[in-house]
Amino acid sequence: MSNFITNVLKLVSGSVTAQILGILLIPIVTRIYNPSDFGIFQIFMSISGILVIVSTFSYQFAIMLPKTEEDAANVASVCTVLVTVVSLLTGIAILFIPEDINIFNTPGVSKYLPLLPLIIFLNGMFFVQNYWLSRKTRFGVIAGSRVSNTLTSKAFQIGFGKWSITPLGLIGGFIAGYLFADLFMLKGIKKDIQVFKKVSIKRMKEVAIQYKKFPLFSSWSSIANTISPQVPAFLLAYFYSTSVVGHFSLANQVVNLPMGIVGSAIGQVFFQKVSEVKNGNGEGDMKVIVGEVYKKLISIGLFPMILLIILGEQIFTFAFGEEWGISGTYVRILVPWIFLVFLSSPISTLYNVFEKQTVWLIFSIVLLVSRVVALFIGGTYGGPEFALALYSFTGIVFWLWNNAYLLGLAGISKKESIGTLVRYATIGLVVSAPLIMIEMIFSNFYIILFAAVVLTGIYYAITLHDDPMFRKMFSAFIINVKNRS
Q1: CA 23 to CA 257: how far, in whole Å?
Q2: Which DSSP helix (H) or strand (E) runs through 251?
Q3: Average pLDDT, stretch 17-37?
């Protein structure tokens, strides 16, 4: 587990100051652009996100699996060709789309469609390079690319805002972020040039056929799982307004940015580790590895989620301005679902490791249908809060099942997994109880915030004391940060 922890720390703590600065820049962005701008940006990103997933046909997941570097390079080359072709086809298709097309009652999106091919290519190549570098265990390079992505994106969004306060500033920053991240990772891949010189069209065809389960099953499940979180942007715009979409977008972004950094970092290292164990090339027991990772995810993510449920509106109003308080309300509704997704995302790679892509496909499709139905019912019979509550509830039900199934693949019983969740939930609720009383007594947010910081320290002190492995991980994190500063 020591190498596993080291690699996770390279991703999580790499240039940690820059990552924190990236998060701190969000309040500046929200004071430049209004909720409607964020709404159009979110709808545009939802469209591009779906097309990006299509662009690789999920072959990027297969990069980790071949036993030889040459075969892995051929798989990566297959991905590169597919991304390029899909980008070009998208560009051709856009030429035939009317300029004034109304997409989900949001005609303002159409003027930015010509930027889609560029985003698809840059984002698709980010995926491909990401998995190649994961295979090579160059997690420090991946960490640097993520920092570059976050900081460049926010810096350009702020810079564009000084020139023109329109959704183009948000979209332009997004493009710049992926461009710089791709260039950063490309420098880390240059040393593998000799391996890629051995790539051949014949072998590319052979590995494409060998790993055909990925486009036949994983790609469809990936598309379904990409559409699922994008559905709210489309249907909230259809039933309500782009401002509602903007509030939802900020709520998602603020929670998922820090949680995503931790979750995706653990997930990438986890995939590389369990793939080695499954192939017989690595040390460790599958059940122990999965159990430890799941326990860490719960202990790390639970308390911030509790704080958001208690202080959602106050935090968003304080950090992002008065007009963004409603985003805090949305966060309180979405937090239980977001937390379960945070627990599930890193270990979802077990579907590929155990070749259960068919199960993943069925789950993804049923989940997608349930989300659409929930939002249609909510949009027809109630306001945004009601619609998002139904959306969150369906997510809770399905991701609870998903987590239990994945843990079962690794030999962890439902009793064990529930016991871990209940244990940390109890600690979190007990530690956070004084905060509810403080909020009722004091109206000054600075006092409430100070109490939240103190209680957060208490929670993680208890967690560190309770878990020797977590304590070792935290100590290594501090040493890593000191060495980088």
Answers
A1: 8
A2: helix 242-279
A3: 78
Q: 232 is written with which tokens?
A: 């709210």
Distance between CA 111 and CA 171 in Å, rounded?
12
Alpha-carbon span 474 to 387, nearest angstrom: 39
Cα–Cα distance, 118 to 44 (Å, whole number): 13
* Average confidence (pLDDT) over 330-357: 83
Please name the residue that has the structure tokens 């892509």.
357
What Rg do the C-alpha atoms of the chain give, in angstroms?
A: 22
Which of 434, 137, 418 is closest to 294 using CA atoms? Answer: 418
What confidence tens digit (pLDDT) does each residue in 136-193 have? 877 778 778 887 888 888 889 988 877 778 888 999 999 999 999 999 988 888 888 8
State the Cα angle at 341 between 340 and 347, rounded to 5°.
Answer: 100
Contact 147, 12 (CB under 8 A): no
Query: Which pLDDT does position 24 carry in this prediction?
Result: 77
DSSP-assigned letter for residue 115: G
**Phi then psi dihedrals of residue 106, to 5 deg:** -130, 75
**CB 88: neighbour CB atoms within 10 A?**
13
How far apart CA 332 and CA 388 sit, in angstroms, is: 10
Tokens of 192: 């593998």
Integer Cα distance of 74 and 86 in angstroms: 18
Cβ-based neighbour number of residue 228 at 10 Å: 22
For 339, other C-beta atoms within 10 Å of its C-beta total 24
Residue of 307, 298, 229 lying closest to 43 (CA atoms): 229
Residue 178 CA to residue 122 CA, distance in Å, equals: 6
